[in-house]
Amino acid sequence: MAEPVDRFVVTPHALFEMRRRGIREDELGEVLAAPGQRWTVRAGRDVLQSRVATAGKPYLLRVFVDTDCRPPEVVTAYRTGKIEKYWRP
Q1: How far lies 75's CA from each of 15, 29, 50, 66, 84, in Å?
Q2: pTM of structure
Q3: Is residue 76 very low, low, confident or very high in pLDDT (cuts 50, 70, 90)?
């Protein structure tokens, strides 16, 4: 399992996008607490992701976090059905 993000702040933009996309805060917290994968996108920004099922359909929930802030800031989150595109073996 990848390293979790225990303390974090959700930015207003991320909160807006989560609401628009129907992502609950508890779903976000689950990915950050126990991510299936985590890697650095660029210096200071990581993506944490986990496989989830919504209405019986598999998705990947991806959460982008600015790690150079204290506490780290969630900048956006989204679901995608393109698991093979983003999941790293």
Answers
A1: 9, 14, 17, 7, 23
A2: 0.94
A3: very high
